[in-house]
């Protein structure tokens, strides 16, 4: 009896905490939204960036204007249409402009964070939940994605709410569960909405379907009919709406999973053993080290050496195994899927990982609030300070530096060379051609290359007549001298993940026969404008009606 009383104390303490200081979610959401918006206040008017301008905003813009689920003015890559529908609906209410979009993404991110809070509170109590919410919100990758209109934040919001419904059942959470059927229905609907936001979101319910099937197979045959099986169909449900979308896409375009080049880049070209092994390594870095994540991870490994405190509960075993399955499958799946190893694919994994860290701290040391504070400070620093290794600008506020550099460069082009044809690379190519992205009002003609490597600049030099000026910039962040690289094989990273070194502005100008007329740097990134001296023979011949007059031929030299 005594042993039973000691065993029940942790669950009772959590229930008491929740009963005494319960924070209703409908009150928490506006508070989280207000804080998220205030923290991002200086970012809300930035023009669209990277994949926003490359796909998501043009796709939503097409639906907003033309009511077409399949984009007309950008590539057709078979991404599900729910983000476009939600963005277009928001624009109908509040207008199509950057500020409106940024505020809406803050709203979606806030809903996702409340889902994180609900998931953590069900498993480990309200104090842990508030801690996980704060750490997730400030973690640089989450912080940046909280204003960027990528499909991943929509998928993460629905997936995290689905997980919170999934674990809300007897024996899985430390609180009284809601009816299992209603939770299963809610989980299935949210998983389906996640899959309709981003096709790769199907990875989470697929992992849980396998886990549920394994649990069912472990039960005695006599108990299988007696045990609830509602979550097995709930985790299978998202396949249906996603399959319907792909069928619709095939009927409209002739392609099921997008155009062949898109499919090759994101799936079929990624199946070599060498590429998968390298991806697993990089994804492991993303899940343990990247953007100061090593601080909570190392602290967790340290506290695991301490004995467990009896007064604090851990995550119930069944739920912990389910979440570990989600982490493991995401690590493996996103080492295969996707041509670029973008960290935003792992948005669901980060709060789950932080939940395990915070629970480990709480269950093993009374100093855990100090550990949480140290981790929070490390994340806040990583938002502003670039790491000493190459990374994607969208992983912290380096993306703001890139946007500002491009804004200034485009302003110079508009002022000095309004009618010029501009040599540049993506994403500046989209910024110069699409006024709806927020960089200009009158588009430029462009000549586009892939990047500013030696090979691509040499290619541009072969056809100098195709451009008048050049907007060049750092397409990758490379640390200053003394930095390092997590690449196990630099040549393989170049082949598989487009790792490359851009030539500097002076080197590009020398290779193309031009001169640098404007240049600017911000925190390790740069942009420059090059001007080329070109001579043209222009012959002016009188019209036929003036044949009686002496023939006039003028030769002028035009220079830009």
Task: Tag the structure with descriptive keywords.
disordered N terminus, 560 residues, Rossmann fold, mainly alpha, 5 strands, disordered C terminus, single chain, five-stranded mixed beta sheet
Overview of the structural elements:
- The protein is mainly α.
- It folds into two domains: 384 residues, no CATH class; 138 residues, Rossmann fold.
- The chain is built from 23 helices and five strands.
- The protein has a five-stranded mixed β-sheet with strand order 2-1-3-5-4, with helices on both faces.
- A hairpin with a 2-residue loop joins strand 4 and strand 5.
- Helix 5 packs antiparallel against helix 6, helix 8 runs antiparallel to helix 9 and helix 15 runs parallel beside helix 17.
- The longest helix is centred in the N-terminal third of the chain and has 27 residues.
- It is globular, with a radius of gyration of 27 Å.
- The N terminus and C terminus are likely disordered.
Topology:
Layout (H helix, E strand, L loop, with lengths): L1 H19 L4 H15 L11 H16 L15 H13 L3 H27 L1 H13 L1 H6 L5 H16 L13 H18 L5 H16 L12 H6 L2 H15 L6 H7 L6 H16 L5 H10 L13 H17 L15 H16 L3 H17 L13 H19 L4 E5 L2 H6 L11 E5 L4 H8 L7 E5 L16 H8 L7 H8 L1 E9 L2 E8 L28
Parallel strand pairs: 1-2, 1-3
Antiparallel strand pairs: 3-5, 4-5
Helix pairs in contact: 2-5, 3-4, 5-6, 5-8, 6-17, 6-18, 8-9, 10-16, 15-17, 16-17, 17-18
Low-confidence stretches: 1-20, 535-540, 545-560
Strand order of the largest sheet: 2-1-3-5-4
What pattern of helices and strands is seen along the backbone?
HHHHHHHHHHHHHHHHHHHEHEHEHHEE
Main beta sheet strand tally, sense and closure: 5 strands, mixed
Shape: globular
Percentage of helical residues? 55-70%
Beta-strand portion reads 5-15%
Cα gyration radius (Å): 27 Å
End-to-end gap: 91 Å
Mean pLDDT, all residues: 87
Overall number of strands: 5
Instruction: Count structural domains.
Output: 2
